[in-house]
Amino acid sequence: MSGLQIGDYSPGDESRIVQILNTFFGGRGNEDYWRWKYLKRHGFNSQDVVTARVDGKIVGCLHSRVMAIRIEPGLDVLMSFDGDFAVLPEYRGANIGIQVHDRNDQRLVDRGVLLRGGFATPDIHRRFYNKRFGHVFVPTSTSYFRKILSLNPLERKVEMIGTNLLSRSWLRRTLKRYPLKVDFNIDNLPPFHIEFTESCFHFCKGSAPVPDLVINAPYSIIVFLEKGPGQFLNWTVINLLKRRLHIRGLFRKGPNLLAQILISIVKR
Amino acid sequence: IFGIPGVTPEDVVILQGEMEILGYAVLGPEGFVLEFVVDPRLSHRERFINATFLIKAIEERSLSRGDDAILFEVPFSDESICQALQKSDYYNKKATEYLNILILDLVGFLSKIIGHRQQHFKIPDGWSPTFLINVKSGLYRFCPIENLSIQIGPPLVVKEVKADSSFSAKPTLKIDLSTLTDLIFKLTTFEKTMSEGGLVIPKISDVKDVKVLMSLIAIDSSWFTLFGDYQ
Q: Most exposed residue of A28, A34, A200, B214, measured as fewest CB within 10 angstroms of its CB?
């Protein structure tokens, strides 16, 4: 590509770099955050930020952080963690990413760095890092544990589940004849209700004025929802029997709802 | 820690015993727990109890800040902390990104590993062969070395060997760097590599020594690492 220059960070580049990162990844913070993450880091070297410029304007970047890592007790080596690696979409296909990545290989060796790597999804690893550079996934022992503290993540999850489930025509027919408003009171979370209609699962904060069902549940309902339908069903049965899970209105509305579901399935 | 934009002293929680600190936790931006440590010298039960207290405290801090969710990253071998998190209604979230690696400096890396084995008396007594390894690139884009020699010694000498017009030595083994990486990080086995032709040993008498070498340079540990975003 004509006008392409691969170089290192220069003071003043951060504004454009942060713009590219937020365009590409989203949520990469502002310039203050970028300066803390890179410039203010102990041992920062301008080679740690490689830029690609076309006609003087930055169009891509790769960030590295050289760290000592402990492979085994007494065996520490230097490794470069690469990340925040982005090339603007309109400049792809010209091998800019490869040139940017290549720039640091020998320079890192000269700095005594023995390994290089980073974090990638299996798809990006296969298509790019493994195919282009030879990276391998190494066995990791990191476990991630998450807990929802507010309703915002739940709202997104409910809408996603709704879009998925409403692709089933029998469910749409059922909810067309029999829309539902269900109140949820889950331990440690504010109350909310979901309006199940044929077009969407509408998440609303607070209780419904006249709910069809009211579900009172321990927080672990969220945990088991994430684990999949089999484990969730198991959890539901156990907690109903142990009276930790209460569904008010089930016997009043349940038979009608079940009948509607059966009719909708038969009509399929 | 306090240099991170948005992190304040209130985001650091310390669990104090009678005479000493038993553990601490640091809450970073967006509910990400940057550090979570419980004294490793305590028993499993004590660590479990202390971890439960710390989890509750850091969770309350995250809630007061208005975070949508809170995320911990811990080694799955640390049963006390993992069990405390599960008991506190945390769910084990599946990772979407994983750590990938390539070897930049093969001579330096092998030198470090074998040197470490020597220091820890893991080299068989009296075993001091010299290996000449012909290295192809495989999938590696950066593979500046074609031949390297490993002299177990002592002294241990690992060095690049330049092939010039006078170079006539026959290699002990031929391998590509991708296959060697797989063997070092235990993504494959010596036997499987041999049977697939990924490792060629011209002289049968060298097979046993090469197998010992491969077992020496293999790395057993799995990697625990936090995402590079947070220092």
A: A200
